């Protein structure tokens, strides 16, 4: 048996699980079949010499295909039909039986692509956040946050809409206070232990442009220290939905050059992630609003 035949046999062995992964992400049996077929085309061309965990590798390939499909669907404003009947066999039905009803699929369809992938892979199939980070092009911490946010929305679908409205209101208050240079209003919307994290590109750019008047470290903690960084700033920032959550971007000419990803708890900002590194920036699901 040559390598391709061996790989084809192993792929067939894993096919039921891979269809389950794709179906949970896409909510459509036909799209799940398409995703698995595309995954086979990719793995059959790649070779397995350096693959140590075939099961994990196949899951990763299928997840990446599904992520591309979700992003393409989002850009076309298409939504899969949750009521579609999956044309799958008994083994797949058994794997999909745990709460794959239309109501759950409707909730999943409200998630951003990266949220949905992180949640499905971790909570349903037990994929580690280190592996998910590689699929999404994020850090393990960011992947954990995506899954956590998705989990909260799935567990309380009715409250999820309220959470998103509240997040937008908090971010709007932050941006307004920043633009107006209202230091005390900025402090009021920040949690006492808020943290600002900036990536390497942001740190270098701030230093070159003397953005803060002093060097911008990769991490700043405390409401007053973070408020000082943003006082009088955000003039060109636009509110955006980033990975399904409220955020802001600087996007001259409609091209995102930097993103501010907010973590909100209650009515306060608890963390701000300033992202300017090209690859992580490109991996974000950004929708200007």
End-to-end CA span: 55 Å
Query: What spatial order of strands do you see in the largest sheet?
Result: 2-1-6-5-4-3-7
The major β-sheet equals: 7 strands, mixed
Name of the CATH architecture of the largest domain? Up-down Bundle
Helix share, percent: 55-70%
Low-confidence stretches: 77-101
* Highest-level CATH class of the largest domain: Mainly Alpha
Integer average pLDDT? 80
Order of helices and strands: HHHHHHHHHHEHEHEEEEHE
Q: Which structural class best describes the helix and strand composition? A: alpha+beta
> What would the CATH topology of the largest domain be?
Butyryl-CoA Dehydrogenase, subunit A, domain 3
How many domains would you count in the coordinates? 2
Blueprint (SSEs and pairs):
Blueprint: H1 3-26, H2 29-46, H3 54-76, H4 90-96, H5 102-108, H6 113-124, H7 129-136, H8 140-155, H9 157-180, H10 183-189, E1 190-198, H11 200-209, E2 219-221, H12 223-230, E3 237-242, E4 245-250, E5 258-265, E6 268-275, H13 278-283, E7 286-288
Parallel strand pairs: 1-6
Antiparallel strand pairs: 1-2, 3-4, 3-7, 4-5, 5-6
Helix pairs in contact: 1-2, 1-3, 1-4, 2-3, 3-6, 3-7, 6-8, 7-8, 8-9, 9-10, 10-12
Provide an overview of this structure.
- This protein is of the alpha+beta class.
- It has helices spanning 3-26, 29-46, 54-76, 90-96, 102-108, 113-124, 129-136, 140-155, 157-180, 183-189, 200-209, 223-230, 278-283; strands at residues 190-198, 219-221, 237-242, 245-250, 258-265, 268-275, 286-288.
- The protein has a 7-stranded mixed sheet with strand order 2-1-6-5-4-3-7.
- The radius of gyration is 21 Å and the shape is elongated.
- 36% of the residues are buried.
């Amino acid at each position: 048996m040559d390598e391709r035949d061996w790989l084809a046999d192993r792929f067939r062995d894993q096919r039921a699980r891979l269809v389950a992964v794709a179906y949970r992400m896409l909510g459509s049996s036909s799209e799940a079949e398409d995703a698995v077929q595309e995954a086979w085309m990719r793995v059959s061309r790649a070779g397995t010499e350096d693959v140590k965990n075939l099961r994990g590798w196949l899951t990763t390939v299928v997840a990446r295909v599904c992520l591309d499909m979700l992003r393409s669907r989002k850009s076309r404003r298409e939504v899969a039909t949750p009521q579609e009947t999956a044309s799958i066999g008994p083994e797949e039905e058994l794997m999909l039986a745990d709460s794959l009803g239309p109501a759950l699929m409707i909730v999943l369809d409200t998630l951003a692509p990266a949220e949905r992938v992180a949640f499905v892979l971790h909570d349903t199939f037990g994929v580690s956040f280190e592996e998910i980070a590689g699929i999404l092009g994020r850090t393990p911490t960011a992947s954990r946050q995506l899954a956590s946010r998705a989990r909260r929305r799935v567990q309380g679908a009715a409250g999820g809409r309220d959470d998103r409205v509240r997040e937008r209101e908090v971010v709007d208050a932050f941006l307004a206070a920043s633009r107006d240079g209202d230091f005390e209003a900025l402090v009021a919307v920040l949690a006492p232990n808020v943290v600002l994290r900036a990536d390497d590109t942001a740190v270098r750019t701030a230093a070159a442009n003397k953005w803060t008047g002093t060097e911008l470290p990769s991490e700043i903690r405390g409401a007053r220290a973070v408020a000082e960084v943003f006082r009088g700033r955000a003039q060109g920032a636009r509110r955006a939905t980033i990975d399904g959550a409220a955020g802001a971007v600087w996007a001259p000419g409609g091209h995102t050059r930097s993103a501010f990803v907010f973590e909100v708890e209650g009515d306060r900002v608890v963390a701000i992630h300033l992202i300017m590194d090209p690859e992580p920036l490109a991996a974000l699901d950004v929708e200007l609003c």
